[in-house]
Amino acid sequence: MSRSHLLLVLSLLSLLSLLALSTPPAAQIEAPPRLKNTRLDAAVFEIAGPWAAIGVSESGQSFTDLNGDGDTGDRVLQLLNLEHGRRVNLGAAGFTNFLAMNEEVFFFGVDERSQGNADLNGDGDASDVIARVHDFRTRSTHELGLALSPNGRSTIDADWVTFMVFEFDANQRLNDDGDLNDYVLHTYHIPSGEVTNHAISVQRSNLQAVQPRQSGPWVGFAVQEAQEGMRDRNGDGDRSDAVMAVLDARTGEITNLGLAVGSLLERPETIAFDGSLLAFVVHEEFQGADLNGDGDQDDLVPHVWDAEDGSVTNLGLASVGPVELDAPQLAFRVQEPGLGDLNGDGDTDDAVVHLHDARTRTTRNLALATGPASEPGNLLQLDHGLLVFQVEELAQGAEDLNGDGDFADLVAHVASVEFPPVRNLGIAVREAFIGPKLLALYVPEMDQGERDLNGDGDRRDEVIHIYRRADASLVNSGLAGTSSVRHTRDGLAYLQVSERDQGQDINGSGLAVDQLLFRTDGTLFEPFLGFTHAFVFEGQSGGRILQTSEVLSGKDYTGDGDTRDSVPFLFVDRLEALSSPSPSSRVR
Known about the structure:
Blueprint: H1 3-19, E1 35-37, E2 42-48, E3 51-57, E4 75-81, E5 87-101, E6 105-111, E7 129-135, E8 140-147, E9 155-157, E10 160-166, H2 167-170, E11 183-189, E12 194-201, E13 204-205, E14 208-209, E15 213-215, E16 218-224, E17 241-248, E18 253-263, E19 271-274, E20 277-283, H3 284-287, E21 300-306, E22 311-314, E23 319-326, E24 329-335, E25 350-357, E26 362-372, E27 380-383, E28 386-392, E29 410-416, E30 419-428, E31 431-434, E32 438-444, E33 462-468, E34 473-487, E35 493-498, H4 499-502, E36 515-520, E37 525-532, E38 534-538, E39 544-549, H5 550-553, E40 566-571
Antiparallel strand pairs: 1-40, 2-3, 3-4, 4-5, 5-6, 6-7, 7-8, 9-10, 10-11, 11-12, 13-14, 15-16, 16-17, 17-18, 19-20, 20-21, 21-22, 23-24, 24-25, 25-26, 27-28, 28-29, 29-30, 31-32, 32-33, 33-34, 34-35, 35-36, 36-37, 38-39, 39-40
């Protein structure tokens, strides 16, 4: 072993020893998974079941024409099987925002301009994005002949794909209002392959469609009155509102909820669908009604629609900022003005966290302020049954919540929706990422009493902390990170660690400038050897891919003689036809 390799190994062993001093033997992470290099210049878009949708660069594949249009400047959609490593070339240059994928189908949009300027929908031009579907069951791809709406997205859940068609690009009147200016809601039924035009225009703002939210066959969306035959859908006497509606794709029935979530120019504050619950915020001004009983019409008031019984519940409280929905719980900030002192700090100008249970239709005041009522900001997240939010010390009666001697911080608090007590973690945070087992938090040293939390001799880093949900323990990783976390279903989290902020050349490259991939189970943190500037993507059913950058890592992973590519790696342990490589050949 060379002296440089020996120093690298000793450095890594030293770092792992420091990180594992307080780790019991039972908490050790299993051996790192082996990885297989795909040798592709490709970007990972979606993962579902055993398949990953990737965009392969023609220029990065030795300037090979992968979609048959006569040039080599495209990024072409392919399907990569995670179980045996083989690929299916879909022969199409696609748009990432139109991708929707589950274990049965892959729905995507094909750019006519990147397909050799081919007119794929027969409308006389070659400027559209055309919908196609690949069926994993039949191994066939077919074109739907529909032009997808610009700046829109497609969604998939259960048996349904939801998407929008722009009338102008389709050169068709699809909702019978006499113009060609609408983004019209469509669904694709996966079992039958049937496409349905629901002949209703989805709200758009600043020339962009406001994305519907989907849960199985239910689709929640805003309808622009002015774009839908100038009909007054909420009964306020004008035709300038964006009004909530719900589609049942099984029957085609559209229910007008009669509540305005925005105006012609203003986007909805929140539309969120989870399970059978749709949460949205109604604008009193556009609704022409006092919805929280405070005598004015200036507020934003959260409402919940339940697909099980068709009921709409007005929470009757003025909110600020977006709401968070994790059915059956809804978290939001309530404005104190007009209601009194909700957090007991002696004033009435705060935004105070509330938690609503849609099963019992009860709302609980957590009596903690994220900031002033005039601001929507500061962290509020609800996912996997865990609520995490920042409490602003000044808004909470100038209370020192992290014990650093000042009142200028945003301090992390957590609460399990199953166990109501709220816990102050006693650390100032900037960002948080919720996983099924772990919560990752970024703690600014300057806001934590200017303490050196990663031992590099300065106090200017953001240091990763992990909150373990199983035992409610908080662990300081001692690692300076960047805002990127990927959680996996087996309880691990993948983190980006900055050598520059850590003040250490962890991977032995000679320069402390890399972003390294680490993984953790909450107590032990382990570097992913050999990988800089890498991310791990995981699909709904657990398949994983590691994506890394040649440009930033300075390595030629594709073997094409340059370091300009973005390269996916497969987790070898999922591959059926590969023999186990030796430790020295884990990256191939």
